[in-house]
Design brief:
Helix content of chain B: 40-55%
Largest sheet of chain B: 3 strands, antiparallel
CATH superfamily of chain A: Vaccinia Virus protein VP39
Strand order of the largest sheet of chain A: 3-2-1-4-5-9-6
Strand content of chain B: 5-15%
Number of domains of chain B: 2
Number of helices of chain B: 12
Structural class of chain A: alpha/beta
Number of strands of chain B: 5
Order of helices and strands of chain A: HEHEHEEHEHEHEEE
Number of strands of chain A: 9
Largest interface: A-B, 18 and 25 residues
Oligomer: heterodimer
Number of helices of chain A: 6
Largest sheet of chain A: 7 strands, mixed
Distance between the termini of chain B: 27 Å
Shape of chain A: globular
CATH architecture of chain A: 3-Layer(aba) Sandwich
Bound molecules: S-adenosylmethionine
CATH topology of chain A: Rossmann fold
Helix content of chain A: 25-40%
Number of domains of chain A: 1
Strand order of the largest sheet of chain B: 1-2-3
Radius of gyration of chain A: 15 Å
Shape of chain B: globular
Radius of gyration of chain B: 21 Å
């Protein structure tokens, strides 16, 4: 792997957040979490930028079999919109996720076409079928983000607040 | 059309009727694309955290506006939709459109490896947004993807928005030559049936300017009694180092804002609609204009009769 890989790789950090934007969700609710996003402009546009590493969700700089949990909050313009995008994302997430006993957590609004719970479930089924994967399980629940993640402000791409209503968990057993 | 008429039969019928245009000119998609952009920007303009004039249009912000319209639809619609989205129906319709477009372009089986895949994908994703919004608000006339739905299904063009010059260059480098100081760095790429390939244009900053003018009217011309003339808007823009002719201000900024129902106008100028009275006044003013037009049409029809032409059927 490239030198980027050696830059931040404290093995005690077992959680990873993708597309974190200006937020610090992973650091607040899943401590020992690296935050990433692909948009380097966030350095200037966020009041306080928490990103540890700027990288594309489909090209993560870490080695294989590395993280316990990967978190995506409100993914937009990447994610589970169709089988192609699911394939591309899941292959990379599964590469850096520990092979067993790991999970992907998705926090989303229900009309987000990149991360609607029913969509995620349909796409993951198709992905597992295509790739002969049998140890993955998807579950979702409705959430009240105000009480579950008190005082945390989720934001859409343009920076205004949004209120996610679903939490989806993809368990890798 | 109510939500119940959104089913696979009606959607496959509209998709089957699609026939790609033989024309390459901008007429079939240019103005409609800008209507779409105004329609998207409207959600942000009406937000209490409106900072549209600071919003620099880029690929990221274009998709941001798309997300914004879905997530903050209540800025434009009277209430938040309680409707459930039929994701399977959207998937099926997208797939049908993809096949129809690929077959029309003669790449049926080779879709996956075709250079046309990105523009087909953008087109079907755009159709998906139209359907998603329509499922949420079946009767809305503010669906920001209505104009692009017309571009695709009625006028027969594929379309794509991209900020990647290398990508655009591969399809038609002449589009890049059209860039000027009013360009945003984003481009529209369109494809018809024509063997001449692609056409398109650099997207200009008009949606930012519309936002700027909308804010100006909200501040300085709130209510019909404070209506202001185009001349004053031109002077305001000059103070912002932006020089536009009054004619361009009317055509590029004020008319689209009016068509989007964002501002009112009367003989004394343009204004921010601040009260029911403003709305009624503007509505009556336009209704009168429409009646005037109707009278002209009736006169022509009459003349047509004398000449033995039935203008209803032309
Ligand atoms: C809607 S914002 C959500 C921000 C944050 N997670 C929240 O919920 O408040 C989506 C974020 O995903 C990032 N993003 C989009 N595409 C990405 C990609 N391919 N790889 C990594 N990040 C991406 C954007 O830069 C943006 O910051």
């Amino acid at each position: 792997m490239s030198e980027r890989n050696t830059l931040i790789d404290d093995k005690s950090y077992t959680n990873l957040e993708i597309g974190a934007g200006c937020g610090d969700f992973g650091k607040k609710f899943y401590p020992k979490c690296y935050l990433t996003d692909y948009d380097a402009n966030l350095r200037e546009s966020c009041e306080l930028c928490h990103i540890d590493w700027f990288c594309d969700a489909h090209e993560l700089p870490w080695g294989d079999n590395r993280f316990d949990t990967i978190i995506l909050c409100n993914p937009y313009n990447y994610g589970f919109n169709d089988d192609d995008s699911t394939d591309k994302l899941m292959k990379e997430l599964l590469r850096v996720l520990k092979v067993t006993n790991s999970k992907i957590i998705l926090i989303s609004t229900k009309n987000n076409k990149h991360c609607n719970p029913q969509r995620v479930s349909t796409r993951i089924s198709a992905f597992c079928k295509k790739n002969n994967i049998s140890n993955m399980n998807v579950s979702s629940e409705e959430i009240d983000c105000n009480s579950l993640y008190e005082n945390y402000v989720f934001k859409e791409v343009l920076g205004d607040q949004i209120f996610p209503s679903c939490k989806i968990t993809i368990d890798v057993q | 059309m109510s939500n119940s008429s959104l089913n696979i039969d009606t959607l496959s019928r509209e998709i089957n009727l699609l026939s790609l245009s033989d024309k390459m000119n901008r007429g079939g998609y240019g103005d409609l694309f800008y209507d779409h952009l105004t329609g998207l920007t409207k959600f942000k303009m009406l937000s209490s955290e409106n900072n549209i004039d600071e919003l620099k249009l880029s690929e990221k912000t274009y998709f941001g506006l798309e997300q914004y319209a879905i997530e903050h639809s209540e800025n434009v619609e009277s209430e938040k939709s309680q409707n459930e989205v039929d994701w399977d129906l959207i998937d099926d319709a997208k797939e049908l459109l993809k096949i129809k477009l690929a077959n029309s372009l003669g790449i049926g089986q080779n879709y996956e490896s075709s250079e046309l895949k990105p523009i087909i994908k953008f087109t079907t994703d755009n159709y998906e947004n139209y359907l998603l919004y329509k499922m949420l608000y079946p009767d809305s006339i503010s669906n920001p993807w209505l104009p692009t739905h017309n571009i695709i299904l009625e006028n027969g063009y594929l379309l794509m928005v991209s900020g990647q010059k290398d990508f655009i260059r591969e399809y038609d480098k002449k589009i890049l030559d059209k860039e000027d100081e009013n360009s945003t760095g984003l481009f529209v790429l369109a494809k018809s049936n024509s063997t001449r390939g692609f056409s398109g244009f650099p997207i200009d900053t008009r949606s930012n300017m519309q936002g700027l003018i909308f804010d100006f009217l909200r501040r300085d011309a709130s209510g019909m009694r404070n209506a202001i003339k185009t001349e004053k808007i031109a002077s305001f823009l000059k103070t912002q180092q932006k020089n536009y002719s009054e004619q361009n201000i009317r055509v590029m900024f004020l008319l689209p804002l009016k068509r989007a129902g964002l501002i009112g106008s009367t003989t004394s100028g343009y204004f921010f609609i601040n009260s029911p009275d403003d709305l009624i006044h503007s509505y009556k003013h336009h209704r009168e204009k429409l009646r005037g037009l109707q009278r002209t049409l009736d006169m022509y029809k009459n003349k047509g009769k004398q000449l033995g032409i039935d203008l209803e059927t032309v």
